[in-house]
Specification:
Shape: elongated
Order of helices and strands: HHHEEEHEEHEEEEHHEEHE
Structural class: alpha+beta
Helix content: 25-40%
Radius of gyration: 34 Å
Number of strands: 12
Largest sheet: 6 strands, antiparallel
Distance between the termini: 122 Å
Amino acid sequence: MSDSAWARFRRHRWLPRATLVLLLVALTAGFVLVRAEQRDRHNGDALARGCGGVLPRKDAAKLLADDAWWTLRTGPGPRGLVSCTLGGDGEDDPWFTVTAEPVLDPPLKGVRVEHVIGRSAYEDEPDWAREHQRADQLVTVPCPNGLPGYARPVTSFRVHASTNSPANEWLGSLVAAVAEDVRADGRCGGAAVRDTDVRPVTPPPQEEAPDAPPAECAWFRPALLGSALKGAGQSAHGATHAWAEACSTTVSKPGAAGGVVVSSASWWGEVLPEVRTEYGRELALAGRGGQPAAGTPAKTTTYELAVWAEGRCAGGRTLHRLGLEGTDRELLAARADSLLARYLDASGDCGDTKVLGKVWG
């Protein structure tokens, strides 16, 4: 009976082929199901390990493609903090990167006024120090107790993230989770980091209009040099850094007896010893009553005068310098004290100020 059934099955016009097709479909479905389960386990494991396991899994998964195998790249981030990248290997597969880094100011190339206001005031920065400017989401977290493991005090850190996922609204929760883990692990103190603290990265501000003086130069106007230079044109350059701020303004007026360069600078914190070394001669001579060399100067003689002061600003010791350069010696001598006083008045929360004296260059 069974032989005849098998024989009839083999002689059937389409049943053997249909059975084979069904068998292949079942095997394929089983293989796909097994592979899907393996992929889900693999992706879940990668997500659990990303950035030290602190990522909110549901939000992170919404950024990625369900049908892709996710590759995790993780490890210590810049200067010993956190960095992880997770996403598919395909060209169009979504991915995200989260990075935590300390906020460190690179050393200045020098402490003289021309160094502070220069276009390249800092020593070369590593690439990671500018990476946050190209990110999508960012939070900067204060660390009042200081992050351990650094030679200089580090009292804040930043966490930033980037993604190519269309579901980028979930990126902020990842940034907040990593930031809170770093804050807690580093025993920073301060308030907990929340999702609402994370902000989109905004483009760097546009450069100020050419006619608008920099904020560091706002204290000065040409009329302070006397009525002869009232309404004179001026060209100003200024900059503020972690341990110094400075301004240099060139004042000129047609028909006036030469132009005047007015510079102002303040230094505080860890650069003070270097300032005292760099300007050692001036500081040693300040207040000794020196004058320019006697005699009849040539018409092109340029005089330089610096006035120094020290004080306490925002709770720390500070050095201030006002510099004047021009061909009118009497004008420089007559205006130096009043210009220094105005600069110090505009310096904000400063007190216990002592004028150290003048020195001619």
